[in-house]
Amino acid sequence: MIEVLGVSKSFGSVRVLSDVSASFQTGRVTALVGPNAAGKTTLIKTILGLVRPDAGEIRIDGEPADAAGAYRARIGYMSQIARYPETLTGGELAEFLTDLRGGVGRVALDETLMDRLRVREFLDKPLRTLSGGTRQKINAAAAFLFRPSILILDEPTAGLDPLSSTLLKDAIAEREVGRTVLVTSHVMSELEQVADDVVFLLEGRVRFAGSMAALKEETRQATLERAVAHMMIRQTGEAAA
């Protein structure tokens, strides 16, 4: 389980996160939603240890996520835009990541998604020669490759064709035992297909944290998209008042 406890972060005079507290439960998929500049990316980078909070802390299974970052070996991360060395082939990238994780002998590889997305035929080609969609499929396969207990997926279906998008969403929705999944996307209908819970950020603050069903009940809206829009309108109105 991931616990975010009172996390705040500013960049210069700009407050990006303000006393953010939320939990991401094991065995469930949590959608992190909010408009642009809500603080989603900063929160993700804080969990990953790429950004240090000004206040608060991150706990993984009850233990503080320390600066040494050993906990990150348990995380599979899929960024919205993969920035791997483009001179590497897909196969070399997998070998490189495996070496970083301690070598094949100590890592239980999961190549299921690689097979589902049919990326093996591209593993001997330099990444720079591949289409954006194919690179995104390799990006997805790499996130799942080491059987991570935590998956953090940022706009995972961006650039994917309908079949690959469906296969990836199926993999996300499988809810592997002992795995915590955090996924963010601007496509609310996709999140609605895979997520159990929702954390809604607006202007760096948590405005809702709970189940998908509870959000819909609270807003009296039938879809996640309309529920989030309702929350945004309501929060804007309260701020103006």
Keywords:
241 residues, alpha/beta, Rossmann fold, 4-stranded antiparallel sheet, 25% strand
Task: Provide structural commentary.
- The protein is of the alpha/beta class and 241 residues long.
- It has one domain (2-240): 3-Layer(aba) Sandwich (Rossmann fold), CATH 3.40.50.300.
- It is built from eight helices and ten strands.
- It has a six-stranded mixed beta sheet with strand order 6-7-8-3-9-10, sandwiched between helices.
Summarize the structure.
This protein is of the alpha/beta class.
How would you summarize the topology of this molecule?
Blueprint (H helix, E strand, L loop, with lengths): L1 E10 L2 E11 L4 E5 L6 H9 L6 E6 L2 E2 L10 E4 L11 H11 L11 H5 L15 H13 L5 E5 L7 H12 L6 E5 L3 H7 L2 E6 L2 E7 H8 L4 H17 L1
Parallel strand pairs: 3-8, 3-9, 6-7, 7-8
Antiparallel strand pairs: 1-2, 1-4, 4-5, 9-10
Helix pairs in contact: 7-8
Number of domains: 1
At the fourth level of CATH, the homologous superfamily is: P-loop containing nucleotide triphosphate hydrolases
CATH C-level category: Alpha Beta
Order of helices and strands: EEEHEEEHHHEHEHEEHH
CATH structural architecture: 3-Layer(aba) Sandwich
- What are the low-pLDDT stretches, counting only 5+ consecutive residues below 50? none
Strand content: 25-35%
CATH topology: Rossmann fold
Query: How far is the N terminus from the C terminus?
Result: 37 Å
The largest sheet has its strands arranged as: 6-7-8-3-9-10
**CA radius of gyration:** 18 Å
Tell me about the largest β-sheet: 6 strands, mixed
Give average pLDDT, whole number: 87
Number of strands: 10
Estimate the helix proportion, in percent.
25-40%
Q: What class do helices, strands and sheet pairing give?
A: alpha/beta
Q: What is the 3D form?
A: globular
- Number of continuous helical runs: 8
